[in-house]
Write a structure and sequence with these properties.
23% of the residues are buried. Helix content is 14%, strand content 38%. The longest helix is centred in the N-terminal third of the chain and has 19 residues. The chain folds into six domains: 83 residues, Nucleic acid-binding proteins (OB fold (Dihydrolipoamide Acetyltransferase, E2P), Beta Barrel); 69 residues, Nucleic acid-binding proteins (OB fold (Dihydrolipoamide Acetyltransferase, E2P), Beta Barrel), CATH 2.40.50.140; 74 residues, OB fold (Dihydrolipoamide Acetyltransferase, E2P), CATH 2.40.50.140; 76 residues, Nucleic acid-binding proteins (OB fold (Dihydrolipoamide Acetyltransferase, E2P), Beta Barrel), CATH 2.40.50.140; 84 residues, Nucleic acid-binding proteins (OB fold (Dihydrolipoamide Acetyltransferase, E2P), Beta Barrel), CATH 2.40.50.140; 105 residues, Beta Barrel (OB fold (Dihydrolipoamide Acetyltransferase, E2P)), CATH 2.40.50. It has a five-stranded mixed barrel with strand order 1-2-3-5-4. Strands 8-7-6-9-10 form a five-stranded antiparallel sheet. It has a five-stranded mixed β-barrel with strand order 11-12-13-15-14. The protein is mainly β and 562 residues long.
Amino acid sequence: MSINAELSDLIDSKFREFKEGSIVNGTIIDIRPQVILVDIGYKSEGAIPTSEFEDEEVEIGDVVEVLLMKLENDEGMVVLSKEKAAHRQNWEKIVKVYEDGGLVKGKVKSVVKGGLMVNVGVEAFLPGSQVDIIPPKDLTEYVGKVFEFKIVKANDERQNVVLSRREVIEAERSELRQQFLQTVKVGDKVEGIVKNITDFGAFVDLQGMDGLLHITDMSWGRISHPSEMLHIGKALDVQILDVDREKERVSLGLKQMQDNPWQDIEAKFPIGQQVKGKVTKLLPYGAFIEIEKGVEGLVHVSELSWVKRITRPSDVLELDQEIEAVVLGISIDEQKISLGVRQLEANPWDEIEARYPIGQRITGAVRNLTTYGAFVGLEEGIDGMIHVSDLSWTRKINHPSEVLKKGDEVEAVVLSIDKENQRVSLGIKQAENDPWSDIDDKFKVGDMVKGQVAKIASFGAFVNLQDDIDGLIHISQLSEDHVEKVKDVLKVGDDVEARVIKVDKVERRIGLSVKAVEYSAEQLQKESQSFETLKPSSEMVGLEQAFNLASPSTEEWSPSED
């Protein structure tokens, strides 16, 4: 074999050592504006874009690792890449760290949908939920910062990596938590930061350990929600109330860092003492008054006034209003104080009997009407009630509106006083003489009388006679002929002439008859007797039953004023 042939074989065997896709060492032989020429010992050099060296300072003669991508391009040059060589090596390192369960450092590059992109030698994705224990609201604050990460996924086929910073933090916190649980004891005072707020309390970060600060342990006073006192991120000193090492739970107290204001509360605020305070809350049933830091008392709506009808405390009080009150009662166990405002003034009901003695005549305006009577104003906040039965001696009044309306000035007599229940009973009829007291002198059986129809009922007609006394014409006494309906014969307002056939002073009843106007004395006596002896089986009722039927439910009646 000739020398040239041997040399050719030697060169070919040397070049056969170079394989596309392998990582080889190369020497920089020239640095140009756009490319850097690298000699890997092959028959031609390779060109690498200058951009692949932008983070490095290189000189001619430097040895670099490159990826042999192609032995020869169309121009006869070797195709090389420094970045891809680094990526290959970094990927192998990433896979090794992932398999070993280790940590990797990386720099956050940018914010993307759902999280962050991180450079850990290769591009990796950090989901937003894995950035921190509490997912941050603003991810941009992490860009440019270097952190340690746990690799939770490395897909060799797709060449993608998923990271978690949260797992790193939780692992650190777990270690700190164990240290904390081993050393802390009940009564210790520790510093923490509010991590989360709920309706029932707040979770406080104690250097890796979460402690629960219950709402009842936040303040000696009353609070409706933890957010009234705390906000996330707030630093505070708390006291250890309980430690459960097995379940890794810690209970905290904030109010315990201060003296208990309820200690010796009865000595500070004895019953009957006058106090000053600020309105902190208004509710339908009362108002809460802060009389000392951490100490509130309740003024029930019924304790706001002796006489005013206050339905809601907000009608007379405002938030932050300074008021005076009297201590009515204290419950240390329940940490409750009852207060009263009306006790600052004299109770007008204490001397009500002196101001309104029984039998005294009073004048007042009708303030309100009910089905059972009328309320008359006596003075500010005090009314007297006239029962419907005390409106008239003579008339059967079913509703006070038949004789009264709001605003009417009336004269009445004080009948009784109930101080305990704060009631004054009045009567209008008692202001006049009872016309029934001498009824025997006014009406006798057989007398002819005249009057006006005041009411119509199915069983008869009520006629208003002298002195406002009503007499009843039973339907059977309207005519000798059968009467089907009273209204066929009479109507309200009609003037009638009738004869008295019955006078009952005890029951205050007068029976009248139209058909007996022309009767003789003998006929009249007979008619009166037959009227009173009607049997229950009869189609008609007797006089007593007829009067008893005159009620609000009676059909076809109307007030005389109509």
